[in-house]
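Hello Y.,

Per our agreement to keep a running log of every chain we model this quarter, I'm adding this entry. I've kept the format consistent with earlier entries: sequence first, then predicted structure.
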Amino acid sequence: MFSKILIANRGEIAVRIIKTCRRLGIATVVVYSEADADSMAVEMADESVFIGGAPAAESYLVADKIVAACKQTGAEAVHPGFGFLSENASFAKRLAAEGIVFIGPNPGAIEAMGDKIESKKFAARAGVSTVPGHVGEIDDVAHALKIAGEIGYPVMIKASAGGGGKGIRVAWGPQDVEEGFPAVRAEAKASFGDDRIFIEKFIESPRHIEIQVLGDKHGDVVHLFERECSIQRRNQKVIEEAPSPLLDEATRAAMGAQAVALAKAVNYDSAGTVEFVAGQDKSFFFLEMNTRLQVEHPVTEMITGVDLVEQMIRSAAGEPLAFGQQDLAINGWAVESRIYAEDPYRGFLPSIGRLVRYLPPEEGGSGAAKVRNDAGVREGDEISMFYDPMISKLSTWGPDRLSAIDAMGRALEDFHIEGPGHNIPFLAAVMDQERFRSGALSTNYIKEEFPDGFAGTEPTAFQADLLAATACAMHRRLTARSAPQLVRDEWVVIAGHDRRKVRLSNGGDAFHVAFEDGRTLSLTQIDWRPGQPLFRAVLDAQPFTALVKPAAEGFIVRHRACTRHVLVLTPRSAELHGKLPPKKAADTSKMILSPMPGLVVSMDVAPGQSVQAGQAVAVVEAMKMQNIIRAEREGVVKAVGPKAGDSVAADEVLIEFA
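Predicted structure for the entry above:
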């Protein structure tokens, strides 16, 4: 076993690896860039080594710097995590030449399966059914248009070295190829240092199912069952679960056997994932193999009890697998939600900034459920534009699928973030959808369920009661503290378009909330003091957590995906409030605003130029993703704000029309 391991990565995966190493008694070294100098991983590791500027191309992607850090610290092995150099065969070979162990598969397996173009060639030779496509590198836009036309639209343009949703576009026609090919190539070069591109047929309404495999250096390979990753946005996984609600035992066994056979054929000797695209009829096709640890590995660990990072380390040290296929079984169900720094209310555009508040749910057991949060950040840390926008991975386990989903819904309620935008309300909305709860999934799920984007959800009957009860209780406590002579029982509560008379009376340790329809509910176990952002209580025997904050008048209250500005008024004040004129929004119809903070890659129009609706006018890069900005209306450009190379803030004016 190794005595010291260097972690060639950052963020939550670096922290995750450190935790396993601590348990095994292995010392750790982390490398860090300029942007990560004060990170949690640097704080937790036994040693740390600075390796360069914030862009990955100046730090985490530079093999020479990783090797130098190993020699400086005496690290015997390198765990690459995922992304960066994790699937780089040249890096693995370089480490071997330097006498350093690569904690991952052997270079031959990486070359055979880690490269998406080569993996398809290998799979075809091995007789594995694959998705139709062009098995080879695409030279340029003209070549891409030719191949896409031959395959037939829609097609998927993919980076050969891609992963994590980076370097991938779906093209529905020639214009998408013309715009998407250069964007994918640029993203691939920036994220992976490899700009090779291939094209394959895009299968509509599929499900994304992957098999976790694990091998040692003695020829033994097992699979740890499947994960379903069908809830995706822009080809980026958002919610994963294990096992899959689609598979029966026969299909699970067939997919597992095929994954193991493929892994054995390339002498695979670490943790890896064989990915399949599956039809609703349980048919499946080999898609690709990720020769590394997957982001979503926690759900597999939660249903099998196997620490995959530990097994990777033991395999790299030459130890044989301590268990066989017959020793593995599925226990319960696990769901993972990726908490991203992005604004779901603005098309999920990336968001950056300081974590002013970061209060994750408590980890561990909660009744029959368990909560796990894999994170590499703390309150006060900065979410940088240079790396992936993931803040943390929240996972829950339950004895069955619905209990795991319910546990996730409650954990999301208890997760509080202030600073950058985040997708917690969106994740909560999915957990509450009947379609998701029934398991009727596909990779088109988000597009089909949220065709016009995400704008929150309307309150359910329970949430309408919750909003009123919470606001009244907060108002009562604040009034009792500042002006006890004004405490009263009769109120009018206004939440959006909902206006209700409410009577709030104290029943000892609880409040009784009486509505004008004759119902009386109890609000008990209140855990809230003025200034706290989370209001925890039990409403009619149902526990809940709401996010609350004061507004100019009243309160902003969010429960899961439902947010409302709630006013608690006297009957006379409510009468007068209804006579107030509505506030007019600022007119930005003659402007194109940057929808996100980022870096201007190109400004494609000039003053005096005529622009058509839908025309690409600029490209802004954020979180390693290039976003094409289009005009929403036709017009003549009056002025252009920033130029290529400038940094812009969200809502900064890019272009103004005459």
